[in-house]
Amino acid sequence: MVAPAFDYVAADSYGEAVRLLTAHGDEAKILAGGQSLMPMLNLRLAHPGLLIDISSADERQPSVKDGMLRLPALTRHRVLLQHDLVRQHCPLLADAVRHVGNVRVRNRGTIGGSLAHADPTSEIGCCALAAGAEVVARGPDGDRTVPAGDLFAGYWSTTLAESEVITDVLIPAARPGQGWSFLEMVRRTSDFAIVAVAATIFLAERSVAIASATIALAGVADRVVLADPDLAGLTGSATTDEALDAAAGRIAEHLEPSDDVHASGAYRRRLARVLVARALRQARDRAAGAVR
Amino acid sequence: MTKRRVVLDVNGRDHETWVQPSDTLLDVLHDQLGLADVRYGCGEGVCGTCTVLLDGEPVSGCLTLAVQAAGHRVTTLRGLMGPGDVLHPLQECFLRRGAAQCGFCTPGMVLTALDVVQRLGRPTREEIRDALVGNLCRCTGYTKILDAVEEYADLAAEP
């Protein structure tokens, strides 16, 4: 298919992008890496009148300050995969990104674009939740910070205003003693996840109990979701396989995934239980290895 | 939408052309510049037949706008070949191993395979398979493609 005709403007700064968004309202769409938007245009699933290309709005690289990993929104997936600061301070994300699309998608796709697209099966959205990320959104009134947990509003929609654009993703740097895991099930490598799980576990030093844990899931609802570690009985729990498996069971019980052509809701719930159990064990082992 | 003039650096040569803002790089390379080695397959970035190198990195021509490619270096399969259409050593490996049947996927395969060998030096068969996951071939069953890329990687790794 051929994309519907649209106009195009390259914004050379985020300020310019916000100004254009404000002027054109919902006629305009931000173009970052284009790896989700362009297929939607080619399939005529979206009909914007204007694309605002922000690729040259920002040239910053990932950085770390005061225990926060700052990823400029235009950071491409390939950079997330390879960058030393990402590997060191958010190994969860660096590992998960290898599951995103194919090599061409990773060469063009950006972290900000992925979060703004808000696909309910997004590996990056899932990691953003588990890692406690925040996004910085710039609008006509300046910058505001939105926790990843408040960003997603449903299928391919966010809580961002029409004239806001994501400029940065802030992720608390992984602490010593924190373990992590990212696992997903796909029909074909590079395809959308049927279910994906991102988990972190923090053990207090020399502790056999879980000080804190986060579990995020993709593919089980209209958005990526965080499981409640207290409800699952994880906080303060023992780190035995049995305890972790029981927590995974409780997390899966609370999910109500729907059926689609790829999998039934019941299968997704079963996948969630199995993947969360495996992810918790792997995160625990990594945490234990870090404490030792 | 008004057409605009762009200068595209394709295979080391500047091409001046007029494009619609919504024209993809694939549209312009194939339909306007007559580069038959960049092909429409799926239009969704899944199949890899429109792969080109943008500043040396594989991208989908169908997911990149032509206007976005201005100021960047575009390389298609033909850009790998020497003067007088001398085949690239990786193409020779494809021929020797019978890695092309209908040939529709071959340009994208070759460009993507070249990238993984250049990035990783001597990638394992699994790493090659992973790099080529976004390049679909409906004829060969992939085995001979992997054989060809491994042979080339061995050649390229020789001092």
Verbal overview:
The complex is a heterodimer of chains A (292) and B (159). Helix content of chain A is 33%, strand content 25%. With 292 residues, chain A is α+β, with helices and mostly antiparallel strands. Chain A has 3 domains: 7-53, Uridine Diphospho-n-acetylenolpyruvylglucosamine Reductase, domain 2 (2-Layer Sandwich), CATH 3.30.43; 63-172, Uridine Diphospho-n-acetylenolpyruvylglucosamine Reductase, domain 3 (2-Layer Sandwich); 178-291, CO dehydrogenase flavoprotein, C-terminal domain (Enolase-like, domain 1, 2-Layer Sandwich). In chain A, helix 9 (241-253) packs antiparallel against helix 10. Chain B has 2 domains: 4-80, Ubiquitin-like (UB roll) (Roll); 89-157, [2Fe-2S]-binding domain (DNA polymerase, domain 1). In chain B, strand 1 and strand 2 (13-19) form a beta hairpin. In chain B, helix 4 packs across helix 7 (143-157) and helix 5 (106-120) crosses helix 7 (143-157). Chain B contains 7 helices and 5 strands, in the order ββαββαβααααα. Chain B is 39% helix and 16% strand. With 159 residues, chain B is an alpha+beta fold. A 5-stranded mixed beta sheet of chain B has the order 2-1-5-3-4, sandwiched between helices. Chain B is globular, with a radius of gyration of 16 Å. Chain B starts with a strand and ends with a helix. Chain A binds chain B through residues 1-8, 10, 31, 34-35, 38-39, 41-43, 51, 53, 55, 78, 101-105, 107-108, 188-190, and chain B through 1, 20-22, 24, 27, 43-46, 48, 51, 54, 57-60, 62-65, 67-68, 112, 115-116, 130-131, 133-135.
